Every structure is written in structure tokens, then in C-alpha cells.
């Protein structure tokens, strides 16, 4: 029944295959011979199967766990260097007709203020985000065909791209909206979106149906097959994720990798990125009501094992997590983070008092973007506002090829330097600017290709003179 090439949810996320995988992992988690064989394969840095990765996740032998962490760090360094890409979520509307029991937007929640941004309000939000320095957004909306139809989403995307405030511009709009039709995915593709993001929440069908008791999202197959429809519509950068805490993490981990394998098997392109959100407190939602919460150590191991199993997929961690937790995960494989985020509708232009706030969930890392940038640089990372790949047509298979041959550094490193320079010129505090200028001088020296190096130095001068948006 298990068939990674099938387009049927229950065949590519085959329940029996997940259970078999977990059984295999449990039975072999102390089998040093098998573990070493898997670790040796992982050292080739070309990924692991869901079975192999599930076994590493289960392994508790301290020396082997250390090897897993060391390898995750190495793979991260090889594929992503010290770059960390920045983005912010933009909540358009919290009207929703679904009944998701973990989400405060659920239809029965009568005390959360409902709000949908007008196009003028979107312009205000985007200006505020541009004033922080953001270039890449992920738009978020509840599912409501009347209040948030696809036409509203498309109009909003256009509005966002059109806002040009001072030196600011949003150059990549990623979209996190409910599963939809091929026709609507085509429209999103034509609107020039970056990545289509959809979290599976849980891959366990039985739990999924209980956690989504009503509304269109109740349909497990429709939700799980959404990425197939998105790919069919031409969106070849898709981003997966599960909401950790809802179901047993081992199940989710194995199934998430099966989903990635399915995309690769069926479309020749794995996920562009994988998000690892954990459930948080929110209006009407108590995370303790879900008894599958995972501690920070388990979470770190999950991140490390994803990094090893899927080296080509970016990994995203949001401000749901604290500064300390993010710091640990950056080191183990995370390549993209949000910063200065607000999870309420209209939260950037006009922050609300808590009583009137429509926030989706509590944010743990509440630092302003400038502080996040400074912190990243002090930790030795190179913050990047790059949006170049998809604008240069490096998406889907093309992106994967460049990524797999590790040539992506030739583009990402210079683009990171140039977009950081823009940030320093336009938005940084004096202290951040000083640290950033020093970092840029150091990073330029690491560019191997002399031609690229010379071009970057030229472009940095032009940025100082007011030029913007140079990219490879
Ligand atoms: N409504 C869209 C859908 O149906 O997929 C997506 C937008 S929703 C704003 C984005 C994500 O927030 C959801 O997919 C879910 O994983 C996450 N989320 C919902 N409630 C949450 C909570 N209490 N804590 C953390 N994340 C939550």
C-alpha cells in the first residue's frame, strides 16, 4: 500500500509504513552496527531515508547523540554557511470557518476580535515592516471563502509588492493559506509568490480528524495532498511543517520525511523548506491540554535529525521560540528565522493593548529586528535579507541542483553581504551598523571567486551611494 510516488495521501503517508518505521527504530535504537552504518551514510551529506532518520532520532546512546549533533552542524555549515535568512509574518485576516481545536481563530471562539486588513491597512503594515528592514514576508490568513476569498489574497499580494516606502520594498511574498484548488494555486503562482507554505499540523489521520472537527480543513486527504496540487499548478517551492505537540513526535517526524520523499519521488523536487513550530498558548487555547508536548532537548534532536535527513531543505524557526531556544537550534540546522514578528492582524502599524489584541499565539522572542540582527552577528552568523533565488528563476529543480552541488554559496554569500549592507545603511542602529560593517569586511575575504568578489566590492560602494537591490 505504501507508495511514495502515489498522489493519494493514504498511500504516500501510509499509516502502516509509519508504524513499521517506528517499530524498526525502537528495535534497533541500541544496535551500534546499524547506527554506525546510518551515520556513515549520513556523512556523505546527501540525506537519509525516513527509516534511517527515525532510528537516529530514537537513539539515546550519548556518544552517538553527540555524533548526530556534530554532523548536523557540519551539514549546516556545508550547505548554508553562517548565513541566516530573515523574514516576518504578515497576518491579513483572522476570519476562519474551521474548527481547529489548537488555534484561537477557530469559528467557535467568540471573544477573539475578528479583523481583516483593508488594502490601505496592508500598505500601512507593509510600510512599518519596510521601516524595520524586512524584504521577505510570509502572509497568513484564516480560511474563510466569504471574508478571505482567493481574490482578496491576490489583491493583497499585489498591494504588498507595490508598496515602495523610502528605500524599502518587499521582494518576496511567501503564502501560508489553507489548502486550495489547482486553479487557485495557479493564480498564486501567477501573482509571483515565493514559497507556498502549509503545515500539516499532524500526519496521523485519526488525530487529524479529531483536531479538525469541522470546516473544510477536516478533510485529511485534501489537506495532505495540497502540495501535490500546488506543484501541479507550477509552484515548485513548497514548505512543509507539523505543529509539534499535537501528536507523538516520532510519528510526525517519520511522516514529515515521508512527505518530503514523496515530493521528490513524484515531482523530482523536495520541499524548499521545513518549519518546526511547537504549539503555544493562545486565546482560548491551553497548550497543556495537548499531551504530546516536547521538551527542548527532544526538539533540538528533531531539528538535528531533519538537517541530516534533508540537507537541501531550508529549516525555519519562528518567534514562537525563545531567544535561548533559537540560539541552540541555529547551531543545529535552522537556516531561516523570523524577527520582530507580530502575530496579530494589524500588529505592526498599530500595536494593540493585550485586551484588544487578535494575536494568533504568544510570541516568545519579542525583540525588535535590529536586536535580532545584532545578536545573530555577535553569534558569528551573517544575517541575510536575500530574496534573489526565485527572482532569478532558481526555484524547484533548478534550485535543488545548485544546492546539491553546493554551488549555492556562490550566490547566497554575496547576496547576503549586499542585502546586509542595505540593512545597515537604511535601518540599523549605530551599534548594529558598526558590528555589521566589520562583519562585511571579514565576509568579503571569504569569497573564493575573484570576479564575484570584485563585483561585490563595487556593489557595496554603489549601495553607499544610494543604489539598491544588487543581486546574483
Ligand atoms: N489557516 C491556514 C491553514 O489552514 O493552514 C494557515 C494560517 S495559520 C495562521 C498558520 C499556522 O499557525 C497553522 O498552520 C498552525 O500550525 C499554527 N498555529 C495555530 N495555532 C497555533 C498555536 N496555538 N500555537 C502555535 N502555532 C499555532
Instruction: Please write the string of helix (H) and strand (E) elements.
Output: HHHHHEHEHEHEHHHEHEHEHEHEHHHHH
The CATH architecture designation of the largest domain is Alpha-Beta Barrel
The kinds of small molecule bound in this structure are: S-adenosylmethionine
The CATH fourth-level homologous superfamily of the largest domain? Aldolase class I
How helix-rich are the residues, as a percent range? 40-55%
SS summary, helix count: 20
- What is the CATH class of the largest domain? Alpha Beta
Number of strands: 9
CATH topology of the largest domain, what is it called? TIM Barrel
Q: How would a crystallographer describe the biggest sheet?
A: 9 strands, parallel
Mean pLDDT, to the nearest integer, reads 95
Category by helix and strand content: alpha/beta
Uncertain runs are none
From the N-terminal CA to the C-terminal CA, the straight-line distance is 45 Å
Q: What Rg do the Cα atoms give?
A: 21 Å
Q: Which word captures the global form?
A: globular
- Percentage of β-strand residues: 5-15%
Structure description:
This protein is α/β, with parallel strands linked by helices. The protein folds into two domains: 9-76, no CATH class; 78-366, Aldolase class I (TIM Barrel). It is built from 20 helices and nine strands. The protein is globular. The mean pLDDT is 95. Residues 102-103, 140, 142-143, 176-178, 198-199, 201, 217, 243, 277, 279-280, 282, 285, 320, 360-361 line the site of S-adenosylmethionine (SAM).
Amino acid at each position: 500500500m505504501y507508495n511514495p510516488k502515489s498522489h493519494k495521501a493514504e498511500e504516500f503517508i501510509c499509516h502502516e509504513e509509519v508504524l513499521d518505521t517506528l517499530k524498526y527504530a525502537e528495535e534497533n535504537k541500541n544496535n551500534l552496527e546499524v547506527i554506525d552504518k546510518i551515520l556513515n551514510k549520513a556523512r556523505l551529506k546527501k540525506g537519509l531515508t525516513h527509516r534511517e532518520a527515525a532510528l537516529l532520532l530514537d537513539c539515546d546512546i550519548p556518544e552517538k547523540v553527540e555524533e548526530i549533533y556534530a554532523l548536523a552542524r557540519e551539514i549546516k555549515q556545508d550547505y548554508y554557511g553562517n548565513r541566516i535568512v530573515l523574514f516576518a509574518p504578515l497576518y491579513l485576516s483572522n476570519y476562519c470557518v474551521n474548527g481547529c481545536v489548537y488555534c484561537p481563530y477557530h469559528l467557535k471562539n467568540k471573544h477573539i476580535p475578528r479583523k481583516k486588513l483593508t488594502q490601505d491597512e496592508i500598505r500601512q503594515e507593509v510600510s512599518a515592516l519596510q521601516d524595520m528592514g524586512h524584504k521577505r514576508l510570509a502572509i497568513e490568513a484564516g480560511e474563510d471563502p466569504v471574508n478571505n476569498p482567493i481574490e482578496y489574497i491576490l489583491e493583497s499580494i499585489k498591494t504588498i509588492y507595490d508598496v515602495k516606502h523610502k528605500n524599502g520594498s518587499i521582494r518576496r511574498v511567501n503564502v501560508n493559506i489553507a489548502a486550495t484548488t489547482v486553479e487557485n494555486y495557479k493564480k498564486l503562482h501567477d501573482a509571483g509568490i515565493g514559497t507556498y507554505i502549509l503545515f500539516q499540523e499532524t500526519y496521523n489521520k485519526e488525530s487529524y480528524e479529531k483536531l479538525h472537527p469541522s470546516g473544510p480543513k477536516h478533510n485529511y486527504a485534501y489537506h495532505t495532498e495540497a502540495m501535490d496540487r500546488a506543484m501541479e499548478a507550477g509552484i515548485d517551492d513548497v514548505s512543509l511543517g507539523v505543529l509539534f505537540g499535537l501528536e507523538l513526535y516520532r510519528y510526525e517526524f517519520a511522516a514529515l520525511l515521508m512527505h518530503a520523499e514523496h515530493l521528490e519521488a513524484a515531482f523530482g523536487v523536495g520541499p524548499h523548506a521545513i518549519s518546526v513550530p511547537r504549539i503555544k498558548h493562545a486565546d482560548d487555547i491551553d497548550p497543556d491540554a495537548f499531551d504530546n508536548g516536547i521538551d527542548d532537548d527532544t526538539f533540538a534532536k528533531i531539528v538535528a535529525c531533519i538537517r541530516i535527513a534533508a540537507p537541501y531543505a531550508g529549516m525555519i524557526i519562528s518567534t514562537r521560540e525563545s531567544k535561548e531556544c533559537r540560539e541552540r537550534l541555529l547551531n543545529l540546522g535552522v537556516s531561516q528565522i523570523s524577527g520582530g514578528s507580530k502575530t496579530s492582524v494589524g500588529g505592526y502599524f498599530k500595536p494593540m493593548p493585550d485586551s484588544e489584541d487578535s494575536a494568533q499565539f504568544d510570541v516568545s522572542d519579542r525583540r525588535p529586528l535590529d536586536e535580532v540582527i545584532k545578536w545573530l552577528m555577535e553569534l558569528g552568523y551573517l544575517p541575510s535579507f536575500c530574496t534573489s533565488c526565485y527572482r532569478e528563476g532558481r526555484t524547484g529543480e533548478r534550485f535543488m541542483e545548485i544546492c546539491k552541488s553546493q554551488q549555492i554559496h556562490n550566490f547566497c554569500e554575496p547576496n547576503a553581504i549586499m542585502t546586509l549592507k542595505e540593512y545597515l545603511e537604511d535601518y540599523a542602529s549605530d551599534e548594529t551598523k558598526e558590528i555589521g560593517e566589520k562583519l562585511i569586511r571579514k565576509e568579503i575575504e571569504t569569497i573564493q571567486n575573484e570576479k564575484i568578489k570584485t563585483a561585490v566590492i563595487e556593489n557595496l560602494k554603489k549601495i553607499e551611494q544610494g543604489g539598491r537591490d544588487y543581486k546574483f
